[in-house]
């Protein structure tokens, strides 16, 4: 037997051994990945949320309200205090936890399916190809968008905090107290109808390309690095940052349009995605599609970097905890 053939069979054996031995074990592993992704997303979101506030307000305001990121932060703190930078944090933490749990669960399920297909086809390695990574990301992203869009509509409304009562407040007077997450949700459903919770779902589905690009770049770079050595959380941090930088820079105009559609009230313009694009370009120029891109890219890159670093650590912790529970149950 040739060395090449022997190595191929050895790799195949390693792949089979690393695959969970039963559907129940695979299901448990998918849940472990989902929990790790949810926990990593929650921690990274909490660390970077003020940047989300700054970028979201820049996305939904007109060009007349645009200012530098530093001036915007000073204005928010002066008017609302430090808590103003964390408007909508509770809904965002809930949203990112649910979003990441759903995404990672379906992504791992899809990836497992492709890996098993690769093994059955006799491929030497079960590592996903670029096309397979993109298809797995598309399936996971689409499921996530449909299930979690209402959460992000509520969060964007709370983060924007842009109302007539706030603009007309007298000097020295305190702005009216803003509703809670549940209050905002009930208000949208009552005043605008339940379908308003799915505003911006079309550009959100288009934005599925964002995690596809992000995770494809991450997976392929990770595969390249694994050929040389073991991937550490530090490596995952940098690879995650690079993937997100590329993905967010390419898809940012759709993020702006989605945010505008989220905050459009019942009396606002009823526009589809393409009409929103045309109106923003007409009224604000091409620069209007990139409002708040500085803090958004910074936040996205830092969040993704921490997410991938946290996820690997949390996944290992989840697997170890699962093993301890299994041993005690025996």
Note down, in words, how this protein is organized.
With 330 residues, the chain is mostly helical. The protein has a single domain (23-160, 177-329), classed as Mitochondrial carrier fold. The chain is 75% helix and 0% strand. The protein is built from twelve helices and no strands. It has helices at 3-18, 23-60, 69-80, 89-120, 130-160, 164-167, 181-192, 201-206, 209-226, 233-263, 273-284, 293-329. Helix 2 packs antiparallel against helix 12 (293-329) and helix 5 packs across helix 9. The longest helix has 38 residues, at 23-60. The protein is globular and about 55 Å long. The protein starts with a helix and ends with a helix.
CATH class label:
Mainly Alpha
Q: What would CATH call the architecture?
A: Alpha/alpha barrel
The span between the termini is 43 Å
Q: Could you say what the CATH topology is called?
A: Mitochondrial carrier fold
The helix content, as a percent range, equals over 70%
Uncertain segments are 4-19, 162-173
Can you tell me the overall shape?
globular
The profile of the biggest β sheet is: none
Overall tally of structural domains: 1
Enumerate how many helices there are, as a single number.
Answer: 12
Question: What structural class do you assign from the helix and strand content?
Answer: mainly alpha
Strand percentage lies at under 5%
Solcar repeats: 28-113, 128-224, 235-317
GO molecular function, one term: FAD transmembrane transporter activity
Family: Belongs to the mitochondrial carrier (TC 2.A.29) family.
Subcellular location: Peroxisome membrane
